[in-house]
Design a protein that fits this description.
Layout: E1 9-19, E2 24-29, H1 34-37, E3 43-46, E4 53-63, E5 66-71, H2 77-81, E6 87-91, H3 105-108, E7 112-115, E8 120-129, E9 134-140, E10 143-148, E11 154-158, E12 163-166, H4 172-175, H5 179-182
Parallel strand pairs: 7-12
Antiparallel strand pairs: 1-2, 1-6, 2-5, 3-4, 3-6, 4-5, 7-8, 8-9, 9-10, 11-12
């Protein structure tokens, strides 16, 4: 397929290992929408973001929540083993719309987190967990804090304004401070 420059790359998965002897690979998804991202006919970028190669998904099936993918041009176990550890990317523009009150992780990273009273908690440095149980990783002045990304706590999420307003229950910010920031 060849190389394609990624304008706004979004990581959607990583090749875990080869599967079987027909060139298939098991993918560890880095998306909450694996069934949408990994479909036969879709073209994904395989490899480091700056050295990726476009590959078409020939066929895909899921086992225990992970896609087992066959790429065009990857026909043997040796070909598949060469892809182990490779990142899988898509253009942000190819992702499509999300359900209401759902956000792409990359849109939340960098947002400032404030309490309803205006106190700055910090900046989102990552999002962990699944779609149903996501946590904001917020880099604050005293270290990282984990904040559940749920409506009763995150009362306003505005990625366009780069702001998330929270109403944390008493003790949440102290309780969810990560060990690394305590030590």
């Amino acid at each position: 397929m060849g190389r394609q420059d990624l304008v706004d790359p979004i990581l959607i998965g990583r090749v875990a290992r080869a599967h079987g002897n027909r060139g298939e690979v098991i993918v560890n998804p880095e998306t909450d929408f694996a069934e949408d991202r990994f479909q036969a006919g879709r073209i994904v970028q395989v490899g480091a973001v700056d050295r990726s190669v476009a590959r078409r998904i020939e066929r895909v099936r899921f086992h225990q929540g992970r896609p087992i993918v066959a790429f065009e041009g990857v026909a043997t176990m040796n070909d598949a083993e060469a892809l182990a550890g490779a990142d899988l990317w898509m253009q942000a523009a190819d992702l499509g719309p999300l359900p209401p009150e759902t956000f792409y992780r990359h849109d939340l990273i960098g947002c400032e987190v404030r309490t309803g009273s205006g106190e700055v908690v910090g900046q989102v440095s990552g999002v962990e967990g699944t779609l149903e149980r996501s946590y904001l990783v917020v880099k604050g002045t005293l270290g990282d804090v984990l904040i559940p990304l749920v409506a009763p706590i995150c009362v306003k999420v505005d990625p366009a304004a780069r702001v998330i307003v929270i109403e944390p229950p008493d003790g949440l910010l102290d309780l969810n401070e990560t060990r690394a920031s305590r030590g």
